[in-house]
TrEMBL record:
Protein name per Swiss-Prot or TrEMBL: Glycosidase
Keyword field contains Glycosyltransferase: yes
Family: Belongs to the glycosyl hydrolase 130 family.
UniProt GO MF annotations: hydrolase activity, acting on glycosyl bonds
Keyword terms of this UniProt record: Glycosidase, Glycosyltransferase, Hydrolase, Transferase
Keyword hit for Transmembrane: no
């Protein structure tokens, strides 16, 4: 679907690594592998705030017969670890797999930190890059990075979920703020390999609600002829305070057996209460992944959830709302390392349209103006 406004607003070339939390930490050159997957919210001054994931990578990860990763050793100190090449599979540019453990073990070729970027109310021009407000890993639970922020405005404040990566666990961590610029760490709220946690922008029945997406290596089959496909899906959880979460018994959004385009799925934008095609409910944008080569094809879809029971889908469309846009990244061809990915992470109401923020090709931040009339069930 072609949108009237659809452009990149931030790319790796806009990032000053001299102001990175990693600057001067070790004797190796780094570069910005990607500045992407921005959480987004509206600031009190009307501007939009993008919380951008900056993946800072080693220019030469393979050196002296070893492949290296960046790791937080202790608060404020980062180091390099090296593994013998014969133990590693380096086919994916974003990570490498380590052999011999009896199960999948990997490390990353980059370490991610979060950079607040203030943009104009329409999302299209940079106002300020707040390097002094950047969030970097601060403990062993996120020693390999802090990724993919999602920001929700709820009950007069801001809650931000992030994915924290470490050998201890692959967890969801929570931050809170009164202004979306100064953040307080609230701890781990979901444990091992639960990604894409999206807190609803409003209470339901007096409780906080969230979408979650637990991962695993094993999924049980639906019965023959079921309309659902086994695999990663979007679940739901509730909380009395936004800090302590309990999974819901009812499932959320599941992959449909009739298409491979959403064989794998996960949450995109925090659900917002709005009206779509004459029905009021929680609008959620989510990603579906079609299997292809190593990474797959990522597209953005939408669903409208019941305002009182978000486990009920009121309306959706199997056609994608957003698809990868190679024309947008053509000027960055020399920086490309991945294709076929749009990963939507933020939404803001702008009257007759939504401002939608996405990561494009795990490389840059994409802003799309999506008319509300575009949301047609089908």
């Amino acid at each position: 679907m072609k949108m009237a406004v659809d452009q990149l607003v931030l790319t790796p070339r806009d990032i000053d690594l001299a102001r990175s939390p990693l600057a001067g930490q070790f004797d190796a050159e780094t570069y910005v592998l990607g500045a992407f997957n921005p959480g987004m919210t509206r600031l009190a001054n009307g501007n939009l705030l993008l919380m951008v994931r900056v993946a800072e990578a080693l220019r030469r990860p393979i050196l002296d017969g070893k492949v290296h990763a960046i790791r937080l050793e202790e608060p404020g100190r980062f180091v390099l670890d090296g593994w013998p090449l014969e133990l590693a599979d380096t086919a994916d540019p974003r990570k490498f797999l380590l052999h011999g453990g009896g199960w999948k073990v990997m490390a990353l070729t980059s370490l991610s930190w979060l950079l607040p970027v203030e943009v104009t109310p329409d999302g299209l021009q940079i106002v300020a890059i707040h390097y002094d407000k950047a969030l970097a890993p601060e403990g062993s639970w996120q020693c390999y990075g802090l990724e993919d922020a999602r920001i929700s405005r709820v009950e007069g404040g801001y809650l931000m979920t992030t994915c924290s990566v470490s050998p201890e666990r692959h967890s969801t961590t929570l931050y809170s703020s009164e202004n979306a610029l100064d953040w307080t760490f609230e701890g781990i709220v979901l444990d091992h390999q639960n990604k894409d946690m999206l807190i609803f922008e409003g209470l339901v029945g007096g409780q906080y609600w969230a979408q979650t997406r637990p991962l695993g290596d094993l999924y049980f089959a639906y019965p023959p002829g079921s309309e659902w496909r086994a695999g990663p899906s979007i679940n739901l959880a509730t909380s009395p305070d936004g800090r302590h979460w309990k999974p819901c018994l009812a499932p959320g959004i599941r992959p449909h057996a009739g298409t491979a385009a959403t064989a794998r799925m996960g949450g995109g934008t925090p659900p917002v209460l709005t009206e779509i095609a004459g029905q009021r409910g929680w609008l959620t944008l989510w990603h579906g992944v079609e299997p292809k080569e190593i990474v797959g094809i990522y597209r953005t879809y939408w669903s409208l959830l019941d305002p009182d029971d978000p486990s009920r889908v009121l309306a959706t469309n199997r056609e994608p709302l957003l698809e990868p846009a190679p024309a947008l990244t053509a000027p960055l061809e020399d920086l490309m390392y991945l294709r076929d990915v749009v990963f939507t992470t933020g939404i803001a109401d702008a009257g007759d349209h939504f401002v939608v923020a996405s990561g494009e090709a795990d490389l840059a931040c994409r802003i799309t103006h999506v008319p509300k009339a575009s949301f047609k069930p089908g």
